[in-house]
Amino acid sequence: MFINRVALVGVVGRYYTYMLYFKILVGFTGINESSSDTECLRRVQEITGKKLKFHQVDILKKEELDTIFETFLTNHFYLIFILQYDIDCVMHFAALKAVGESVQLPLLYYKNNVSGSINLFEVMNKHNVKKLLYSSSATVYGTPQKLPLTENHPTGLGCTNPYGKSKYFVEEILKDLVTSDKSWSVISLRYFNPVGAHESGLIGEDPQGVPNNLMPYIAQVAVGRRPDLKVYGNDYDTPDGTGVRDYIHIQDLAVGHLDAAKKLLSPSFSGFKAYNLGTGSGLSVLQLVKAFEEASGRKIPYEIVGRREGDIAYCYSDASLAKRELGWEAKKGLKEMCE
Q1: Which of 41, 125, 128, 160: CA 20 to 30 A from 204?
Q2: What cofactor is needed (predicted)?
């Protein structure tokens, strides 16, 4: 299936850039970007050789979002390509996403992630665009009752931080929306821990300030930008005492979105469906550090500090449902994640 009429919301910055990158390669069309770093977009243009234009708007500004949809749908507004038809579906990536920060700034996270999403859904509803691919998270599962995590695991009850709760709340809103209006179709993709970079080195995770995620933190220590890695806790009930996570290469994650979009746009799909995107195995913080040292040939000094608020000991996926129903599975291994 060739898909060329997909609106991307919140696409610039970190793994969102990868989504935009892959969509361009298969002819997807981006519509809207939230308040993110436009340098990432420039790098996408360099890799693809395509001249891109995009419209920047805050997802909290509903009137501006509505204007973009109105223009896009009625005048075939030029953003990345000349659009010739109506929008088929929306891919919603716009969200704040740092677990620790969300504990300190809960109202900001609920306002942006929940209220902003409602704005988008209302605008979509108004313009009769009712197919949505939602960027969710494994944090909706909270503290696991059983591992590996399947899509049937309870969500919401064990959430340990406002970020995870905001993702859970939006999923519940979408379930209610689909129940109330059968013309809506939604796929929610529950990411585990995206890592890695494009082989060109132009696109990856290189945040300003102290990184919230492990891999860019390790990379900054490796190149001398930081003296050591802060390891948040070594007293978890895990083999080496550090937290265990399911790390997935960003390019595998991007392909998962393509496969899910094909499912969403198929005539037989309806309702709400969630899929895990992960590798199905867990690595501890110190295991990932060792793997990075072996891949880079550089020693990563680290310091054990106190646990970070909102973190849990274990989290890894059972992604077999995505394999069965989407034809997707993670291909890239640990070595490629560290390169």
Answers
A1: 160
A2: NAD(+)
